[in-house]
Write the C-alpha cells for this entry.
Amino acid sequence: MTLLTPRVDRKVPAAPAPDGDVAPRRRGRLHAHRVISSTLVTALVIMQVYPLVWLFMTSLRTEQDFASSNPFSLPTEFTLDNFSRAFSTGNLGLNIVNSLVVTLGANVLIVVLGMMGAYALEVLGFRLKTFVRSMFLLGIIVPVQIALVPLFIDYANIGLLDTYQSMIIPLAAFSLPMSIYLFSSFYSYISRETYEAASMDGAGPYRVFGQITLPLSVNTIVTVVLVNSIFIWNDFIFANTFVLSDELKTIPLGLQNYIGAMGNVDWTATFAAVCVTITPLMLVFLVLNKAMIYGLESGANKG
Amino acid sequence: MKHHRLNVAAVAAAASLTLTLAACSASGASPDSSSSDDGTITPREISWLLSRPADGGVITAMEQIADEYAADHPGFSLNLITTPDRPSYIQKYETLAAAHQLPELFDTDATPFAKKLAGAGQMVDAEELLTDLGLYDDYLPAALNYQRFDDGSLYMIPFEFQLEFFWYNTALFEQAGIDVPATLDDFPAMCEALRAQGITPIALDGQDLWPLERYMAYYPFRMAGPEYVQALKKGEAKFSDPAGVAAVNWLYDLGQAGCFQPGFSSTGYADAQALFTTGQAAVYNIGTWELSNLATENLDEGVRDDVDYFTLPTIDGAVTADNEYVTPSGIGMAVNAETYDPLVKDFLAYALARYPEVYTESGALSPTTTASAAIPDNATPLYQRAVDQAGDVGDAIAMPWDTQLDPTSNTRLQQELTLLVQGDETPEGFIATMDAVIAENGPEAFAE
Amino acid sequence: MGAPPPPDRPRQSVKEAKMLPGRSKISVLVFLVPPLAVYAFAVLLPIVQSLFLSLFKWDGITDMKFVGLDNYVKMFTRDDVFWTSFGNAMGYLAICLVLQLGGALLVAGLLTTLRRGRELVKTLYLLPAVISTVAIAFLFQRIYSYEPTGLLNQVLEWVGLGSLAQPWLSNVDTVLAAVSVPEGWRFAGLYMLIVYAALLAVPKDLEEAATLDRANWWQIFWRIKFPYIRPVWITTTIMAATYALRGFDIPYLLTNGGPGQASELLTTYMYKTAFTHTDYGYASAISVFIVVECLVAVGLIYFLLRRKVD
C-alpha cells in the first residue's frame, strides 16, 4: 500500500445498511443522530477555521476600516496596500528562506540520524541497547526549555551562537527520540529472515542498511519529515534565544519585527505578513494533507 | 582575562562532539575583534546594535552620515541592526554581552546591567570620548544627565531629546466641565468627571508595561525628588516610606476612579493612541516622539483643533520644579571597549559632529544646542510650542523607573502595578510585596 | 508497506535473540555514535549543565558564585512567583488536556458517524496546526480584544450574552483560560486524528454485537471502544501532557505572564529569569524542576491509566 493513496475509511459503524434489518423507527432515530452530529461537526469546523478566514480578510482591509468597524463585517474596500507595507517593513522573503534552510537541515539530521540510531538499536543490536533506548525515550519527555541556558553558554563558548546550526542542532536533537522510535517500530516489522538471507549472501551491516533497510524506509521517512516539519517550521523558542542577526531570522522572528518601537503595531500590515508567511506551509499541507494525516494517525497508533 | 567565562567541565567534551558541525559554521554577527592601536584607520564594516524605529529619524540620519563617511573611506560600512521592541532588544543585548559578542556600538539605558558592563571595562568612557572629540559642551546638560549612572559617570551618548507630556482633548474637558489638573491629587476627580460623561479619562498602553510605570515615578519625583528611586532600588528607601505610600495610594485611587480604559493591561500601543486620536479618551501621556502624529495634519481632523498638552502637574509641597519632569534623551549608544579602534573613533568624530544638523531636518529635537528642530510644513501650532518647551526644562529629571531598578524587581513592579490599578491588589499588599522583592534583589544587584 | 500493525503485538520476548549476524563492534559504533552524539550534546549535556549551574549565582558578566542549594531554597521558600507559576502551569495543563483530549474524543466520535466529507473535515481541522505561534498570538490578541471590540466579545453580544463581554486578557480570573485556549485550538486536530484512527480500528463485530444487545452509545463507547483504544489514549495523553507542560510561546507572546502573574507559567518564568533578569543560576534551578515535573507527570499518567486495565 502506498502512502499517498487515501485510505478507504472502513464503513461507518452506526450507519445501517440501506436494506438492513433495522426497524424503521430506529432508522429514523439514527438519521436524527446523524443530522445532529453533522451540524455539530460543521459548527466545530467553522469555529476551527473562521479565525483563519478572518485573518486573511483583515489583511485586505484598510487601516481605518480595521480600527473602526465591527470585526465580523466584510471589508468595505479591499486594498493590497498592507502587503506592500508588510514587504517594505520586514524581510519576508529572507525569513521564508531561513525557515526553509532550518527546516530542511533539521529534517535531514532527524531522518539520517534517526535511521542510523534505529538501525543500531533494532537491527544490529548490542548489549547496552535497552539502556540506550531508554536514554533516547527520556528525550520525548524532557521539555526543550532545559536546553536554553546551557546551549546558549556552550554556543557562546564555541562560537556557534547566531548560526543556522544553533537552531538546527537542538531542533533535530529534541525530535530525534520520536524519530528513532518511529523508525525502530517500523524496522521491527521487517522480518528477520530478510536480514539473515542477506547475511548468508555475505552482505555486511552497511550493505544490509543500504540495500534492504533504507529502501524500505521511504514511507516512514515521509511520515517523520511531515510531522516534524510542522513543529520545526514554527519553532519560536530556539530561534528567539539563539538568533540575533536579521539575516538569520526565521518566520516567527520575522513576524516579531512587526512590533515596532515602544510596542507600536501596524495591525493590518502585520496580518498581511502573517498571511504571506503561513501560505507556503498551508499550501504544502493542503497538497500533502493525506500523507500527513496518514502519518499522524499511524505514527501514534503504532505505540 | 579578567572575566571568567563559564567553564563547565563538560564543555570540552561538548566542543569536541560538535567540532564537525562547527567546522561548517556560518559566520554570524560576531564582531571583528582585530583592534589595532597604532593609529591607522582601516575601513571595515562596523555594526550598531540598536533599539530604535526602523524608519525613524535616528536611523535615517545615521544611514545618510555613514554613506557620506563611506564615500571618503572606501570599505567602510555601518550595519544597523535594530530591534525596536524594547523587551526583545534588552534580552538580545544582555545575552550578547554575556556571550562577549557585542558589536562595536550598542544601545543601552543606564541600567544596573549596563553599570556592570562599564565596571567590567567593556564600555568606552563617553565623557572622555566626547571631550576628546571636542563635542562635550555641545550637548544639553539634561540630555547627558539622563544617560549618567548614579555616580555621575557617563558611558552612553544621547541621540535624541524628548519631553513627555499629558496630551489632552480640550473639547472633552469642556464637556466634563473641568480644567487641566493643577496637582496630581486632582487626577481622581478629573477622571470621575470624565467618566460621568461616558468618556474614557486616560488612554493607557498597559500591554507594554512601561507607560504605567511612568505613573509610578511621578508622585515620588514631586514629593521626594529624583533621589528617592536611587535609594529605593538599593533597598535603602522603602515603599513604606511616605513618598512610596503616597505614590501607591495615588495609583490605587486612579484605578478606583476608573482613570484608564477597561482592559488597559491588554491594550497595545496603537490601540491606546487610537483611543485618544479618535476622541474617545481625553488624556494620553506620551513623549514628543509622537509629535508627527499628534501635532501635524496626520492627526484626525475631528480632534486636530482640540488637542493640547500640559506637563507633569505638581503637588502641594513639591521639592521639584514645575519645569522638571520626564525629559529622556532616549536610549543611549555605548561604544564597545573591546572593539574600539582608530576607525571607530574617527567615524564617531565625523558622525557625532554632523548628526545634529541631519537629524533635526526630520523635525525632531536634538540632544545638542547646535541645531534646532525643523518644523514640518503640515505642523499644527502645537508643534512649535512643544519644540520651544524644550528650551525651558529644569535640571532634575524624573527618570523612568524601568531603567533604574534591577530587572527582577522591575518585572515584579510592573506586574504588581497592573494588579494595583486594576484593583486586584491592595496598597498595603503591594507595599509589602514590593519591599520584600527589592530587599531580596536590590542590594545584591547594586553591590559594588 | 507501512500499514500500522495491531498496537499490542508482543515484541519484547523475541528481541534479545535479534542481532544481525555479521555485525561488528565498529559497525554498531558507526551507526550509533552520530545520533547519540547530537542527542548527547543538545539534550543530555544541557540537563547535566543545568544541574551544575543551578548551584551557582551568575549574571553573565561578573564571576560565578557557588551558592550550594540556595537557588532551590529560594525557589521553595522565598519565591511566591514560583508557586504561582507552578499553580498556573497545572491549570494550563488541565485546560489543555480537557480541550485537546476531550475535544479530540468528541470530534473523532462525531466524525465516525459522518458519511461524507470526512477527509475535508480532517484537513480543515488540522489546519491551525501549521500556523506559527507568533501568528496565533497576534490573531488571538484581536479575538480577545475589548476595546476595539474583538471577535469573542462581538459574538457574545450577538447571542445576548453581552454582559459577559470583558477584556479577557486583563481579567486575572479569565486570563489563564484565555491563554490556554489557543494552545488547545491549535493542536485539537492533531489529537483528534490520532484518536479517530484508533476508533476506526475498533473491530466492528464487537460493536455490532453490543448494538444488538440494545446497549446505548455511551455503553458502547465506555465498555467496548474505550478499552480498545486505551493504549493509544495513554500515548496521546502523555503527548498532550508533556506538550502542555512545556507550553511557552502563546502565554509568552500573548500576555507575557500578566496581568500580575496570572498567566505566568513555570516555563515563561524560567525564561524571564534567565534572559531578562540574567539570573542564569536560578533559571537553571527552575528548569531542573520543570524536567522533574514532566517526569513525574508522565509517570503518574502511565501509572493511573495502566492500573485501570488490570
Remarks:
- Residues 44 and 50 of chain A are 10 Å apart (CA to CA).
- Chain A touches chain B at residues 67-68, 89, 150, 152-165, 169, 241, 244-248, 256-257, 259-267 (CB under 8 Å).
- The first helix of chain A runs from residue 24 to 58.
- Chain A has 13 helices and no strands.
